[in-house]
Design brief:
Elements lengths: L1 H23 L3 H21 L5 H23 L9 H17 L2 H16 L9 H6 L2
């Protein structure tokens, strides 16, 4: 399973993450934090947009608390490195594949954001953009 995880990361997510980080001049950790924050906001919206149950209320409160925690982290320590957990990457990829098979566009977007965020943590160092390397800067 780790071989599949490495192939998915190396071929699907990491090249695009590196290009986006080089273009926007942010670190992979800030990229992870921002995508996780946006994904949590989208998840909260999807929870609140359907009729309520007690489970949704409890889950919504937990998501709001995590969003507040992420807001503080993004404001105070935007480049904070989080622990990368192999299990989370596998779960988000399985959810993503499940949503693609079932044609759920909204939850596919949420899971895609979380997949990009989790694979951003696997990058050790963002290389300089190719333009600067050619110029010798």
């Amino acid at each position: 399973m780790r071989i599949i995880d490495k192939w998915i990361g190396d071929n699907l997510f990491v090249p695009l993450i590196i290009k986006l980080c080089q273009t926007t001049a942010i670190t992979q950790y800030r990229f992870h934090n921002v995508l996780t924050y946006v994904g949590l906001l989208m998840l909260l919206y999807s929870i609140l947009s359907v009729p309520f149950s007690l489970f949704q209320l409890v889950f919504g409160v937990i998501i709001v608390l995590v969003i507040l925690w992420m807001t503080a982290i993004l404001a105070l320590i935007p480049d904070m490195k989080f622990l990368q957990i192999y299990f989370f990457r596998v779960i988000w990829v399985v959810f993503l594949i499940w949503d693609i098979v079932e044609f759920k566009s909204w939850s596919t977007c949420i899971n895609l954001l979380f997949c990009f965020a989790q694979y951003a943590l696997t990058i050790e160092e963002i290389p300089p953009p190719e333009d600067k390397v050619k110029l010798g800067v």
